[in-house]
Each structure stands twice: as structure tokens, then as C-alpha cells.
Specification:
This protein is an alpha+beta fold. It has seven helices and seven strands; from the N terminus they run H-H-E-E-E-E-H-E-H-E-H-E-H-H. A five-stranded mixed β-sheet has the order 5-2-3-6-7, sandwiched between helices. The chain binds guanosine-5'-triphosphate and zinc ion. Guanosine-5'-triphosphate (GTP) binds next to helix 4 and helix 5.
Length: about 190
């Protein structure tokens, strides 16, 4: 797998402009290939990151109840059409063994995992798995609500639909009452 190649994107975008019947040399489009390259380096910046690296900061604190960071805004790119899907992630875990992480690290985890060609299901389960790997918590629950531009502006043309995905691990996979408590917190407070 190679790294990020700005020059190659510029060539490709120029070719796409030609292929749709545009004139890539008209004034308004002259800088577009370079601009798109810079944009892709931003929106795909998570591609060569291991999301688990975001959870390096671990504190020793004996808290064995739910920690939930909700309404984490994210933008990702649908890997089928390379158009955005975006929405909110709610990330919860129940620590054990006095291992907690910084709250911002949960948002960084979402960010790193979202910034690559992605599927909503994989985004959800990758976040859950990273928490399990790094914190060995008693339980994890991740919920993602998103709108897919590929369903809104083309194809089936259904703007306003929301896709909701969840990933639960540990006690939050096995204990239905605990899971309901966490899902209620995600949605109702
Ligand atoms: N499961 C899943 N599907 C997705 C996601 N993002 C986009 N899709 C779907 O990927 C599918 C690709 O279907 P194809 O039939 O190969 O492509 P298409 O002809 O462009 O499909 P339409 O979108 O139905 O026009 C579509 O049903 C999209 O809605 C995602 O995150 N998860
Ligand atoms: Zn799509």
C-alpha cells in the first residue's frame, strides 16, 4: 500500500473533468485538481493510521460505571461512491481494572476511523474493537446515526433517511438491561 500521492490525484481529477466534458483549462477549474488533492489528504487522513493509537493515554482511576461521550460529529466517505456520509457517533464503555482513557480520545478514535473510504458498519465495529483491544473494558457500546449522500442526492434519491448501526461488546452484549440503560442514555438525555 502506498502513501498519499498529491500529483496522481491532480492528474486523475483533470482526467475526470475531461471525461465529463468539462474544460480543465478554463479559469474556474485551473486550481481544482490541486484543491481536490488537498481536500482528499484531509478527508482520507485516517487511512494509514491505526485507530487504536488514539487510545494511548490511559489513566488509573477506579470507575466501574458507564462512560459515554455522545453526539460526536463525524464526516466519512462512502467507499462505494466516494461521497460523504455523516452524522453522530455515541461511544460508551464500562471500565474495569481502573483503566480509563481521556474523553477527547474517544472523539479522536471516531475521527481517525472515519477519515478513510468507509462503510458505516465497519466504522462502528472498528471503534468498538479498538476500545476492547486497548482498555480491556467490561463492556463497550457504539451507536452511529448517519445520512448517506449516495442515498440522498443520487440513486434512490431519498434525502433525510438515517441509518443507525450499533456494536456492543462484553457485558453490554450479554446483559440486556445494561445495554438498554446505555442505549437510553445515548438517545434520551
Ligand atoms: N451496508 C452498507 N451499504 C452502503 C454503505 N454506504 C453505501 N452503501 C450501499 O452500497 C450499495 C452499493 O450498491 P450497488 O448496487 O453496487 O451500487 P449502485 O448501483 O450505485 O446502487 P444504488 O445506490 O442503489 O443506486 C448501495 O445500496 C448503497 O446504499 C454503508 O456504509 N453500508
Ligand atoms: Zn455510497
Amino acid at each position: 500500500m502506498s502513501g498519499f500521492d498529491q500529483k496522481k490525484i491532480e492528474i486523475a481529477v483533470r482526467m475526470i473533468l475531461e471525461a465529463i466534458g468539462e474544460d480543465p483549462d478554463r479559469e474556474g477549474l485551473l486550481d481544482t485538481p490541486a484543491r481536490v488533492g488537498r481536500m482528499y489528504s484531509e478527508v482520507f487522513s485516517g487511512l494509514h493510521q491505526d485507530p487504536r493509537e488514539q487510545l494511548k493515554t490511559i489513566f488509573n482511576e477506579d470507575h466501574n460505571e458507564v462512560v459515554l461521550v455522545k453526539d460526536i460529529t463525524f464526516y466519512s466517505m462512502c467507499e462505494h461512491h466516494l461521497v460523504p456520509f455523516y452524522g453522530h457517533a455515541h461511544v460508551a464503555y464500562i471500565p474495569q481494572g481502573a483503566r480509563i482513557t481521556g474523553l477527547s480520545k474517544l472523539a479522536r478514535l471516531v475521527e481517525s476511523t472515519a477519515r478513510r473510504p468507509q462503510l458505516q458498519e465497519r466504522l462502528t465495529s472498528t471503534i468498538a474493537n479498538a476500545l476492547v483491544d486497548r482498555l480491556d473494558p467490561a463492556g463497550v457500546a457504539v451507536m452511529i446515526e448517519a445520512e448517506h449522500m449516495c442515498m440522498a442526492m443520487r440513486g434512490v434519491n431519498k434525502p433525510g433517511t438515517k441509518t443507525l448501526t450499533t456494536a456492543v461488546r462484553g457485558i453490554l452484549a450479554t446483559d440486556t438491561n445494561k445495554r438498554k440503560e446505555v442505549f437510553d442514555l445515548m438517545h434520551n438525555s
